[in-house]
Amino acid sequence: MDECELVIFISTVACSLAKCCSAEELTILSAIFTQLGDSLATILTKRELCEAATTNNVISTLKDDNDSDSSKKDQ
């Protein structure tokens, strides 16, 4: 499903829910899906930060190893 199809699908679901749910039900569903989206964004951000930190640590370690190898060769 491409991004346009995804938007159409989500809009169709929203319209379908609006036809069969009360205002109170739509209010709680809206809050639930907003919280879900925010929670997923928080989880993804945390993962990205951890991955970036891990990558930076690996790169830093590799650089340190290369620097110490170079200094051993110079001696």
Describe the overall structure.
This protein is mainly α and 75 residues long. The chain has one domain (3-74). The chain has 2 helices and no strands. The chain has helices at residues 3-20, 23-74. The longest helix has 52 residues, at 23-74. The protein is rod-shaped and about 75 Å long. The model has no long low-confidence stretch (mean pLDDT 90).
Give the helix/strand layout.
Elements (H helix, E strand, L loop, with lengths): L2 H18 L2 H52 L1
The major sheet is characterized as:
none
Specify the helix fraction band: over 70%
**How would you describe the shape?**
rod-shaped
> Over the alpha carbons, how many angstroms does the gyration radius reach?
24 Å
Q: How many discrete structural domains?
A: 1
The SSE order reads HH
Structural class: mainly alpha
Mean pLDDT rating: 90
Give a count of the beta strands, DSSP E runs of length 2 or more: 0
Defining traits:
mainly alpha; 93% helix; rod-shaped
Please give a quick description of this structure.
The protein is mainly α and 75 residues long. It has one domain (3-74).
